[in-house]
Amino acid sequence: MAGGEIAHAERAHALLSASASHRWLHCPPSARLEETLPDTTSEAANRGTLAHEISELKLRKAFTDQMPTRKYNAALKKFKAQALYEPVMEEHTNAYLDYVQKIVHSFPSPPFVAIERKVDYSDYAPEGFGTSDCIVVGSRQLHVIDYKNGSGVPVGAEDNPQMKLYALGALKAFSLLFPVDTVHLAIVQPKVRAEPSEWSLSAADLLAWGKSIKPIAQQAFNGEGAYQLGDHCKFCRAVGRCPAQVKRAFEAGESLPVKPPPLSTWAEFAEALRRVEPVVAWFTGAKKLALSEVLKGTELPGWKAVEGRGSRDYADLDKAFAHLREKGIEEAVLYKRQPLTLPQLEEALTKAVYKELLEDAGHVSKKPGAPTLAPEDDKRPAYNGQVKPEDVFSTPPEQS
């Protein structure tokens, strides 16, 4: 990291942060609600921070800092010595660097490149600011590029509010020196997709969107508006204890379609599934939250923590197997040779080598997944295969 730079984990965050904009734009009062709760982190988040610091180092050496090779290698060595470092970070951060280089080289004349630039979008969201991973501007084009290290949730650039807020901040910072007609957003997420997600819009459309969200942002800043439930709840600090979630849980049972025997119709059954599904998801998460609080010493009337099912392990594997061999047990009984699964091999080889040596060479066959029930608004296409109930269930469900 260049001298004077603030470490990623130590940077200040706005109440209306760009990274949480998907949440406060859908549920305005969540911003102030989250403010009352302690921020938490995880090993995955800390690993992502490390990957960002490595990627920043590589981009600064390539575009903005006259960094001697010895200094760069010493800094990279320190990052690699950290406990959370994974060898695959080298491949992934190189992919990010390659993409930025491709963008820079696409300009007819050298563009301006800003790395980890703090941007101000307070014209649209009160006291709003954030740090954009990479901004490239010139020739009436603005590129805002974000690196994401996560593997669990794919993040797309299309209509992404975080990226649009960064772009608004970049326009404010650079448009006087670099007039912009078109804005390009890109998210590089190597653990999820081989190619970056890209989306473009005109600068005029971006400014119009910024103007359209100002009333919502003001509501969020004031802690006003109605709580709204949705997929934006997943990473909210208040998830589980959110008043809207608790209210829905109480109301779900009261609103379920109920009729006398013999059976509900399939339409009533489907409606019950639709209403109960989010409550079941909330209950599962709420129990985990409650357990963590009880283990901290918080008293939850009517609940306690108990010891779950235990497990067995070798006290000392080497000594145990040496003892068994002394007693005449053959090694063939003790060991089972088993090939790595494809996901394990992909991680061991890296995605590029795995694709070249296995997928492209025709050594991987892909089978469709088993049918699973999903809400009607799920983005996946409806399953159209002919499947018998007994192929899915061990015991076919009774028909009404």
Oligomer status? single chain
Model regions low in confidence, pLDDT < 50 over at least 5 residues: 1-6, 396-400
Q: What is the name of the CATH topology of the largest domain? A: Lambda Exonuclease, Chain A
Strand order of the largest sheet: 1-2-3-4-5
CATH architecture of the largest domain: Alpha-Beta Complex
For the report, how would you describe the main beta sheet?
5 strands, mixed
What is the number of independent domains?
Answer: 3
Task: Identify the CATH class of the largest domain.
Answer: Alpha Beta
Distance between the termini: 66 Å
In short:
The protein is of the alpha+beta class.
Set out the fold topology:
Layout: H1 21-26, H2 30-35, H3 43-64, H4 69-80, H5 88-105, E1 112-120, E2 129-138, E3 141-147, H6 161-174, E4 182-188, E5 197-202, H7 203-222, H8 243-255, H9 266-296, H10 317-326, H11 331-334, H12 342-349, H13 351-359, H14 389-392
Parallel strand pairs: 3-4
Antiparallel strand pairs: 1-2, 2-3, 4-5
Helix pairs in contact: 3-4, 3-5, 6-7, 8-9, 12-13
Task: Give a structural overview.
Residues 360-400 are annotated as: Disordered. InterPro entries: DUF2800, PDDEXK-like_dom_sf. This is DUF2800 domain-containing protein. With 400 residues, this protein is an alpha+beta fold. The protein folds into three domains: 8-222, Lambda Exonuclease, Chain A; 240-296; 317-359, no CATH class. The protein is 44% helix and 10% strand. It is built from 14 helices and five strands. It has helices spanning 21-26, 30-35, 43-64, 69-80, 88-105, 161-174, 203-222, 243-255, 266-296, 317-326, 331-334, 342-349, 351-359, 389-392, and strands at residues 112-120, 129-138, 141-147, 182-188, 197-202. The chain has a five-stranded mixed β-sheet. Strand 1 (112-120) and strand 2 form a beta hairpin. Helix 3 (43-64) runs antiparallel to helix 4, helix 6 (161-174) crosses helix 7 and helix 8 (243-255) runs antiparallel to helix 9.
